[in-house]
Amino acid sequence: MTRQTYISLILILGSLTALGPFSIDMYLPGFNAIAIDLHTTANKVSLSLSSYFIGISAGQLLYGPLLDRFGRKTPLYIGLAVYIIASVGCAVATDINVFIALRFIQAVGSCAAAVASMAMVRDLFPVKDSPKVFSLLMLVVGLSPMLAPTVGGYVIKGFGWHSIFIILALMGFAVLLASRFGLPQTHKPDPSISLKPKPILQGFATVLKNPQFYTYALSGAVAFSGLFTYVAGSPLLFMDIFKVSGEIYGWIFAFMSVSFIGTSQLNSVLLKKYKSEQLVFVGLALQSLISITFLIAAIYHWLNLYGTIAMLFLYLGCLGLTNPNTAGLSLAPFSNNAGSASALLGALQLGLGALASMAVGMLVKDSMVPIVAIMAGSTLIALVILLVGRRNITSLADMEGDAIVMH
C-alpha cells in the first residue's frame, strides 16, 4: 500500500466515521431556536439527540450482518441514501415529535457509515496496526466537534436552523460519492451468512462470549458514555446555566475537542513504547481521578465557567487515550465476521450513550451535578469492568498474525 493510498483511505474512512458526530454536534447551538420555532422547550428538543443515539445504536445491529453477507459497499450506499432523505425531512419538519422521529431515521442511515468504517479498518490493516489507525481516524473525527458547533452557530444565526440539515444532506451525498469512487470492496459477499434472526443472534452471542471483546468493548463503551453525557448536557450547561450565547458555546465546544484530538494523537506516539492494554488502564485510572475531583467540586459549587471548562477538558482528554485502544482491542480477535463485531461495538457505545443522554434530559435543570455524577459513575464502572475482565484475556501480542476466524 502506497503512502498516497494510505492517506486517501484514512481520509475517506474518517469521513464515514465523522458523519455521525457532525449530525450530532452541528445542530446543538440551535436547541433554543428549534424550541421556539416548533413551540416546545429545549429539554424536549434534547430528546431528538436521544432518539438519534437510539437509532444509531439499533441500526448498528442491523448493518453488521448485512455488511458481512452482501459486502461492505452495498449496505453502505443504502444507509447513506436513507440518511440523506431523513436529513431533508428534518429540514422541513414543523412538529417536534416528527422532528424527533426523523432524527431516529437519520441515525439509522448514518450508522451504516460508522459500522462500515470500523469493519474496513479490520479488513484493510493488520491487527497490530488497528489502534494506530483508529487514532488517525480520531484525528479526522475530532475535527467535527471543533468545526460543527462553531460553524453551526453562525449558520443558524445567518440562515436559521433548517439550513443545518440541508448541509448535512449534502455532506451525506459527498461521502456517498467518495465511498463509491475511493474505497475498494474489502470483503466479498458471503452467501453462507444467514440473515435469519436465529443465526444472526447466535453470531452476536459468539462475539459477545469472547473475553477480549466483552472486556474492552464494554469497558470502553461505558467510559465513552461520558462523552455522550457531555454532548447532551453541554447546551443546557453552557447556554442555560452559564448563559453563554450560541456562538460562544460553539467556540467552547471546539476548544474542548482539542483535548480529545490531542490525546488520541499522543496515543499513536505512546503505542511505539507501550501496549494498548497498558494505555487503556492508565487512561481509565486518570479519568476516574479527574471525574471524582470534578464531582466533589461541582457538589460544593467551587467551579465557575472557566473552572468547569478546565475540568471537562481534562476529562475528555482521557477518552482520547482510551477509545482508540479499546476499539482496536475489541475487534482484534475477528476477521470474517468483523462487520458483526463492529456492529456490536458500536451498538454498545451508542446504546449506553443514548441512555446517558436521556438521563441528562430528565435530570438536568439548573445544576451541573447530575451531568458530572453520570460521568463519574460511568468512569468508575468502566474501570471495574476492565480490572475484572482482563484476567481471562490473551494479550494482543499473542494474537498478532493469528487472528481468530469466527463464524
From N to C, what is the helix and strand string? Answer: HHHHHHHHHHHHHHH
Distance between the termini: 28 Å
CATH level-4 homologous superfamily: MFS general substrate transporter like domains
Strand content: under 5%
Q: How many helical stretches?
A: 15
Query: What structural class do helix, strand and pairing data support?
Result: mainly alpha
Please describe the biggest sheet, giving its number of strands, its sense, and whether it closes into a barrel.
Answer: none
User: Remind me, CATH topology?
Assistant: Growth Hormone, Chain: A
Main location: membrane
GO molecular function: sodium:proton antiporter activity; xenobiotic transmembrane transporter activity
Keywords: Cell membrane, Membrane, Transmembrane, Transmembrane helix, Transport
InterPro entries: Efflux_drug-R_Bcr/CmlA, MFS, MFS_dom, MFS_trans_sf
Q: What this model shows, in words?
A:
Residues 9-394 form the Major facilitator superfamily (MFS) profile domain. The chain crosses the membrane at residues 45-64, 76-94, 100-121, 133-156, 162-183, 213-233, 248-267, 279-299, 343-364, 370-389. Belongs to the major facilitator superfamily. Bcr/CmlA family. It comes from Flavobacterium zepuense. The chain is mainly alpha-helical and 407 residues long. Helices cover 81% and strands 0% of the residues. It has a single domain (3-181, 196-399), classed as Growth Hormone, Chain: A (Up-down Bundle). It has 15 helices and no strands. Helix 3 packs parallel to helix 5 (96-124) and helix 9 (211-241) packs antiparallel against helix 12 (305-331). 55% of the residues are buried. The model is unreliable at 395-407 (pLDDT under 50).
